[in-house]
């Protein structure tokens, strides 16, 4: 005999299946959007071309970089002031802004006797193209090639990478070993960063770009300094410390107490500049 409750239970079961199907569909759509738009989250360029170099930094000049895949990128070359150390600094930016925001750092390093190259990645600072791990690797190679044309081979250059730029120059250091490597607020890998900030998503399965900094820094024999902001809420300090621990030739780990990721103290503060000078002196 058929139970009186059989029909309602069947309807409830069908409703539950329908709800589950809708939820699954929404999740699939959201994951698809995240997969398609992930680079707009990773890379945050500031639109518009910066002003002429000399308007921002006295004595600086505008330069053009030419990538292996045919792009022309803008940059600034800042000559050393005072006692010239005959060493260049290749600065690789983080994931936001453009070269104009790195002008205070360039001034500080030039005052210490270093020639400095600031440049913008593809898609940044009015440059053509769209950023990606492969693209940024081509961009920083073009920057190194420009310095070589000016007499600064990799052995006469210190790579300075901040945050995402630390990943960019670490990969370059594997290919073209520099005089030294300076990493400010590096993450261990982009996958680790994504998993930290989006723990509810299968980030490791979705990512196109990887930036395996910890694995690559273990292959770099150049003296390496790692700067850690103890109060960094963007790149977890433990990830930066992990990069330092993995370094094949750690010169120094510098911890900035109370410093956040984008604090002036972390970006171009006196302790950062002093740590850079110590590395340069130790590598010479």
From TrEMBL:
Pfam family, one: Hydrolase_4
Entry keyword Transmembrane: yes
Record-annotated membrane-spanning stretches: 16-37
InterPro entries: AB_hydrolase_fold, Hydrolase_4
Residues in Serine aminopeptidase S33 domain copies: 86-193
The entry's keywords: Membrane, Transmembrane, Transmembrane helix
Designated name of the protein: Pimeloyl-ACP methyl ester carboxylesterase
Organism: Nocardiopsis terrae
């Amino acid at each position: 005999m058929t139970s009186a409750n059989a029909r309602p239970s069947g309807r409830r079961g069908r409703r539950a299946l329908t709800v589950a199907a809708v939820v699954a569909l929404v999740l699939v759509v959201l994951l698809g959007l995240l997969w398609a738009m992930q680079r707009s989250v990773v890379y945050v360029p500031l639109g518009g071309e910066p002003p002429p170099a000399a308007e921002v930094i006295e004595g600086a000049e505008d330069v053009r970089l030419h990538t292996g895949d045919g792009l022309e990128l803008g940059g600034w070359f800042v000559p050393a002031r005072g006692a010239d150390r005959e060493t260049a600094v290749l600065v690789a930016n983080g994931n936001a802004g453009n070269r104009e925001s790195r002008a205070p750092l360039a001034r500080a390093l030039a005052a210490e006797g270093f020639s400095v190259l600031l440049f913008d990645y593809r898609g940044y600072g009015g440059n053509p193209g769209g950023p990606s791990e492969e693209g940024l690797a081509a961009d920083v190679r073009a920057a190194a090639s420009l310095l070589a044309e000016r007499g600064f081979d990799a052995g006469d250059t210190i790579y300075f990478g901040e945050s995402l730029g630390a990943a960019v120059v670490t990969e370059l250091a594997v290919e073209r070993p520099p005089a030294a490597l300076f990493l400010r607020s590096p993450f261990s890998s982009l996958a680790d960063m994504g998993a930290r900030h989006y723990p509810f998503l299968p980030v490791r399965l979705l990512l196109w770009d990887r930036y395996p900094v910890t694995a690559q820094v273990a292959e770099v024999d150049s003296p390496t300094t790692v700067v850690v902001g103890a109060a960094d809420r963007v790149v977890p300090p433990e990830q930066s410390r992990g990069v330092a621990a993995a370094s094949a030739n750690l010169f120094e780990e510098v911890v900035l107490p109370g410093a956040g990721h984008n604090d002036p103290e972390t970006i171009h503060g006196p302790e950062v500049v002093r740590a850079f000078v110590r590395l340069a002196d130790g590598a010479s």
